[in-house]
Amino acid sequence: MWLPLYTVCLRRQTSCRKSFAAALINLSRQRANANVSNFSHSAGLSAPTCKALQYRKHGDPCKVVQLEDVDLAPVGDKDVLVKMLAAPINPSDINMIQGTYAILPDLPAVGGNEGVAQVVEVGSQVKSLKTGDWVIPRDAGLGTWRTEAVLAESDVIAVPNDIPLLSAATLGVNPCTAFRLLADFENLKPGDSVIQNAANSGVGQAVIQIAAARGIKTINVVRDRPQFTQLSDSLTAIGAAYVIREEALRQPTIKELFKSCPKPKLALNGVGGKSALEILRHLQVGGSMVTYGGMAKQPVTVPVSALIFKDVKVRGFWVTQWKRDHSHDGKIFRSMLEELCSLIQQGKLTAPASAEVGLQDYHKALDCAMQPFISAKQVLIM
């Protein structure tokens, strides 16, 4: 059952346990592999607390999110105490705070659905984790914008602690989405092509790199902007075969591209509106367009001719639902993470361009995350 982390934190409040205090002292002596700050707790014998970015009503994130002290529950037999290391700000996090996302936690709630943490203490019946492990959430809704948390063992999954901190912090949403988009809808082989809009997004950058590692060409569509050449060069550097402006999709010169590149089997839509229509038009007969986002907040329109004469398939994908549909078989999720982490270790999959921001500077991070034409993902460093 999906529960906001704030609810978990408040389920049991007692005085600070000796093991909890010992863990905090030990961690203060041994910093994590990443360059992160140590624990910070209120003094005295009261229940331990953590710092958390919490909101008590839906609205503009810059106005409703506040940095507050939140009580931590004691560590149960099947729980782990973790120190959050880093957590990104994703569009879904913003939408959740605004109250427009498909799933909404009970209020008050701690923001953040993704991130990486280090295990500080484990309950007596915890089998799969040990102190020092790095972990990421299995599902959305844990509330990762916080310094510490007490979580059920089943809420998290271990990842290698020898991968870059930012790669681990941004692993659970965008790379997983990109992986499934490339794996689940068309039988793609080396030499095939994929077209996508929002190519500079976190998902888009992951699609480029995973596809390149498999010998699949990507046609990457981005909105025109003053720094287009710089953006194009950065996407090419990570494996993009082609980077084009949205306007180019409507011009006759696009035919020249397809003289050296096969028509795409798969179109990935993270925008909606006219942008989705334009990438759909270039699909080969029988191809698929998969929508995973709608940044334009406009509906997807499909021409009748595309359905009748090209037999295109129009699908949707939500990684949160995929994780829940496959929660009964942890091997599938584990296998995907292992493949993604292997690509990271080989240098074939890097974290998206990111700006590291201290938790206390959250207002700046939230504001930047909501600006147009911002390619750098805001990542909160705890």
From TrEMBL:
UniProt keyword list: Fatty acid biosynthesis, Fatty acid metabolism, Lipid biosynthesis, Lipid metabolism, Mitochondrion, NADP, Oxidoreductase, Transit peptide
Gene Ontology molecular-function annotations: enoyl-[acyl-carrier-protein] reductase (NADPH) activity
Subcellular location: Mitochondrion
EC code(s) of this entry: 1.3.1.104
Uppermost EC category: oxidoreductase
Entry superkingdom: Eukaryota
One GO location term (cellular component): mitochondrion
Residue span(s) of domain Enoyl reductase (ER): 63-380
Biological-process GO terms, alphabetical: fatty acid biosynthetic process
SUPFAM superfamilies: GroES-like, NAD(P)-binding Rossmann-fold domains
Pfam family, one: ADH_zinc_N
InterPro entries registered for this protein in UniProt: ADH-like_C, ADH-like_N, ER, GroES-like_sf, Mito_Enoyl-ACP_Reductase, NAD(P)-bd_dom_sf
Family (UniProt): Belongs to the zinc-containing alcohol dehydrogenase family. Quinone oxidoreductase subfamily.
PANTHER family for the chain: ENOYL-[ACYL-CARRIER-PROTEIN] REDUCTASE, MITOCHONDRIAL
Protein name according to UniProt: Enoyl-[acyl-carrier-protein] reductase, mitochondrial
Source organism: Channa striata (Snakehead murrel)
Lineage: Eukaryota, Metazoa, Chordata, Craniata, Vertebrata
